[in-house]
Amino acid sequence: MLFWSAPAPLVLASRSFARRTMLSAAGIPVEIIPAKIDERAIERNLNGKRDPDELALLLSWEKASAVSFKAPSRLIVGADQTLAMGSKRFNKPANVDEAREQLRMLRGQSHTLHSATTLVQDGSVLFKVVDTARLRMRNFSDKFLDDYLEAAGPSVTESVGGYQLEKLGIHLFERVEGDYFTILGMPLLPLLDFFRFKGFLKD
Fold first, then answer.
1. Active site located where (predicted)?
2. Range of 112's domain?
């Protein structure tokens, strides 16, 4: 690749299409090796003892570490995102009905997205970062919500909160404050800075 100078492609410990797309668009060759961890079990074991940003960072590390032992010497990036509205936390909806319920709770309100990334090689953490964005949804009608869910289809179960800002989800919002890549699920700019610092990207 034009800018990437590491000896092998970056390993992404996730099936996330958005994360893969943003890395590939930045000219970074990516190999997908999804992490097999039980995120909900990890959360339950914590009993709410971690703030949402800390939880996102922990889960990003868990994913990268799990894959690191399967791919010796490779650079592994794990990423995770949490959504909180006050003390209420949200996970990816299991189905469209759950997405509808989440969006009803979020409409007309502000919430925060915490996106974290951890870079691991041979089990050692090379870099970690967490960033926060704040978003406010419009007070849309039930009819609009039904239309949105029908148009968005199964994608509403692929992201926490039931929306993808880079797609039809943008129509749900009246204000967005924060880095665009953070909202999509990965603080990309700090990660690229670290790659350049280490010589993995040409400067």
1. 80 (proton acceptor)
2. 10-198
Please write the tens of the pLDDT for every residue from 7-56.
Answer: 999 999 998 999 999 999 999 999 999 998 877 787 777 766 678 999 99
Annotated catalytic, 80? Answer: yes
Task: Name the catalytic one among 38, 51, 80, 122.
Answer: 80
> Is 0.85 surpassed by the pTM of this model?
yes
Nearby residues of 109 by Cβ (< 8 Å), 6 or more positions away? 85, 136, 137
The model's pLDDT over 68-108, given as tens digits with 9 standing for 90+, comes to: 989 999 999 999 999 999 989 998 999 999 999 999 999 99
Spatial separation of the C-alpha atoms in residues 60 and 141, rounded to whole Å: 35
Q: Which two tokens stand for residue 154?
A: 């199964």
The candidate with the shortest Cα–Cα distance to 54, out of 130, 165, 155, is: 130
Q: State the CATH number of the domain containing residue 91.
A: 3.90.950.10
Query: What is the arithmetic mean of pLDDT over 141-145?
Result: 98
Residues 6+ apart with CB under 8 A from 136: 109, 110, 111, 173, 174, 175, 176
What is each CA distance from 18 to 24, 25, 62, 182, 186, in whole angstroms?
Answer: 10, 10, 20, 11, 9
